[in-house]
Every structure is written in structure tokens, then in C-alpha cells.
Amino acid sequence: MSNKPIILYDIPSKAPGIAWSPNTWKTRYGLNYKGLAYKTEWVEYPDIADFCIKIGAKPTMTRRDGSPYYTLPVIQDPNTGAIISDSMRIAEYLDETYPDTPKLIPAGTHVFQKTFMAAYDHATEGLWPFIIPAVAKILRPTSEEFFVRTREATLGKKLTEVYPSGDDLQPAWKKVEDGFGKVDKWLNEPMNEGKPFVMGDVLSYADLMIAGEMQWCKMGFGEESDLWKDMLKWQDGRWGKLVDRLKEFEGPPEQDLVD
Amino acid sequence: MSNKPIILYDIPSKAPGIAWSPNTWKTRYGLNYKGLAYKTEWVEYPDIADFCIKIGAKPTMTRRDGSPYYTLPVIQDPNTGAIISDSMRIAEYLDETYPDTPKLIPAGTHVFQKTFMAAYDHATEGLWPFIIPAVAKILRPTSEEFFVRTREATLGKKLTEVYPSGDDLQPAWKKVEDGFGKVDKWLNEPMNEGKPFVMGDVLSYADLMIAGEMQWCKMGFGEESDLWKDMLKWQDGRWGKLVDRLKEFEGPPEQDLVD
């Protein structure tokens, strides 16, 4: 077991110390589920690449032009000296390095965890035009400017044009609901029906992924928003129930305010 | 273990006794992998619905107009009296009913097997405009007429218009290769690299699904076709290697010619 706390690098928002990124949430949930000591350090969007290069964290992707793309989460483990990027790789690292803690990726399910995410992402892709513009608004100015500029360059349009409006709004939101209906149907596979998790009674990375997406929507849209309240009603309340079930693995409500 | 052979209902082609359907292949592979005795009976496309109703096999889907949709594979197990439709449900039935045989769906992976298929189908959807018209040509006249008519109704165009031609051909085929590249990348997840199967060293339903798709392409395009030969070269020969590895679970080259 670890003695010195692992450092989790996360992206701050206007709500100090409250995590919102779906990807860093996967790692945060995982660290808490494993009962490993950790502390959060916050890195604004425009600083992520330089920061990763400085500490020696690998890029997680390659851009079309061949340049490296750096993302968070990254963890730094002072017990081993390891610096790991990418939430899947972090989960694997934690499973291997701390073998006495519950597994995030049960043996033989590595490919399945990945393809579950791919299937989920495809089914719920209608969420993006809603959540990306919403997230921009909860970031602090320096990250917001960077986030909006880079996302607009990728999407080829203004985020204000991305967000569904007028007659498009209702059908676009219905499409999101239907997408989550597809995921719900998968989770209700006959042999899994009534079971709390993707793998039945055993929590795994895939559940943390879904719960992380829910944290993203809750923070991005706002807990009091109609959109989030809608999502809590969809599919018989499945998504809110999952977040509730994992509440014990959220960690403290405010994560170390190192800034 | 079974004493009386299970009956596997399959769809015939112009090559008598040679299976070609990706869905019935999943069941055929599964029965052979489990070492269960079975025999094949062949049902032409236009007869499937009436036949299923007659023997009491459930529909596998509901059409948009609410009517039931009957498909093969269906199995009939004279040892228990069970009649099961849908290759996933058949795999579950066989795992439960013959617990001493190797599992097709290891515990906890039911949802993952399903979402693997969803992710695979999405990644390789570019294959459809090639394979659907190709399959029409290998069916016997009564099935061919039914298949072409129903597929054209669903797609809203002639199958001859669906098949990529002229300047579209090369980019459309490249899209298929890239789609399989995506699946290959998933299978090469770091913790799975060099392992033969989706779950590493353990064969499961997901592998039978991929191999079934390969049988479909091999039979549909023809073993001597350029398309199939291309597929055998893609991704370092992964797909042909999988088929070779599962050769021992193909069953006899010609399946009981009950007609």
C-alpha cells in the first residue's frame, strides 16, 4: 500500500476544489475505490502541455498534424516515482502496483472496458453539442479562453452555434435521451438485469466511466438545471442511482485547494 | 452433456451444406467449441418467420411497425425441449444447460460481449455496402429474391446502387480497412497485446462473433476474390489468423444436407 499520497493532476473550474472533468473523475473514483491516499493539484488548460513535458508525463494522443496531445488526468506516485497519463493506463498501473486493492479492470476485460467506452461514446454522442458549450462556462477565464478557442478550431464553428437552439433544441435533447436509452438497454441484458454494475455485482472501470460522465453533466449543466434534472429522470433514474451508489468513492467534497 | 444432437437451424446458400451467415456461425462455432453434438437443418429466408412460429421460436426483434421479426440461428434441444432464438441467448442457454463445457460468456461479461459487438458493428459499418449485395448473389433463388426485396425496402435503394462503384470504390474500401484498423487497435490494448483473443488467452463469444463475420466475408466475396484476399492482408493478417485458430471449431466442412 502507498504511504505518501499519490498526486492527481486535475483541471480547475470556477467552483474551487470541485472536480468536473469526466476523465479525471474516472481516476478520482478509482483512487477512492482502492482506498489509496492522494491529493489533487490543479492545472489550467493552457498550462497542461508544458506542465506534462516538465514532469515527464507522456502525451495521450497524436494530433492529425503529428504533434503530441497532452491531457489530464496524470498521476505522480511518489512511492514508485511513476508518472502516468491516460485514465485507462492509470487504472492498469494502480491495479498492478497496488495488487491488494480491488481491481478496476478485472482480468481479461481490458479490451472490453475500452470497447464499452467506444460503444457508450457513440450511443451518447448527441450529448456533446450540449455539454461542450456548457463546460466552457464553468471554467475560469484562462482555461475558458483556451477551451473555447481550441474546441471551436476542432469543430469549425462557434460554440454558440454548436448548442442546439430553437426548433432543434427538443429533438436534439430527445436524441440524447434515446442514446442513453441504448446504453440502458445494454445494461439490462437479461443476465445482468437488476444488477447494479456493468459487470453485474462487481464494480469496474466502465462504471466509473459512466459515473464520471454524470459528474461532468451535473457540474457542466448545473445541479439545478432542467437538463440535469431531466437526466436524473431518464431510464428509471438509473444514472442518478449510479452516482448515489458511488458517492462513498467521490472523496472529500472539496479537494485540496492547491492552486 | 447432451445425448441427442441439438438441431441448429441455418440459412442455405448455393454451396450446399456450407454455412455463410455471420449470426448462425456464432452458434455453430459455439456448439463445436463446447463439443456438443448437433446437426444442421436449413431454412430458406422466406420460410423463416412461418417456421419459427410453427416450432414456437421467439422473434429476436420488433420492426418499427410493431410486428415481430424472426431470424436465425434458432436451436432446438431435444434433451430439454428448449427452443432458443438469438445467438447471444443461445450462448447463454448453452452455458447454463451444459455447465461442464467451456463458457462462451465468462461470468460478468454479458454486457461487455454485447457492447463489444456494438462497437465492432459501428467501426466496420463501411463493410455493409460491399457485403450485402455480395451475399445476395450466393443465395439460392428463393432466398435471393426475398433477401434483395427486403434489404432494398429497408435501404430505400437497389442493391446495385448500394455497392460502391467508379471513383467511390477505392475510398469506400479504404474506409472498411480503417474500420478494421480501429478494431485491431482495441484488440492491441497494451494489456492484451500479443494475446490471441478479445479476453486475452480465453476464447469467448466476442471472438466467435469476429470469426463469424470473417466467414461471412470469405463466403460472400468468395475465397478467391480480391476483397477477401485484401482482408487477409489487413492488420498484419489478424483476421485470417483468427479464422485459422478457430478452424478446429468449424465442424465438418459440409453440414448435414437435410434440405
From TrEMBL, chains A, B:
Family annotation (InterPro entries): Glutathione-S-Trfase_C_sf, Glutathione_S-Trfase_N, GST_UstS-like_C, Thioredoxin-like_sf
Molecular function GO labels: glutathione transferase activity; maleylacetoacetate isomerase activity
GO biological process: glutathione metabolic process; L-phenylalanine catabolic process
Domain GST N-terminal: 11-102
Pfam family, one: GST_C_7
PANTHER family given in the database record: MALEYLACETOACETATE ISOMERASE
This protein's name: GST N-terminal domain-containing protein
Taxonomic lineage: Eukaryota, Fungi, Dikarya, Basidiomycota, Agaricomycotina
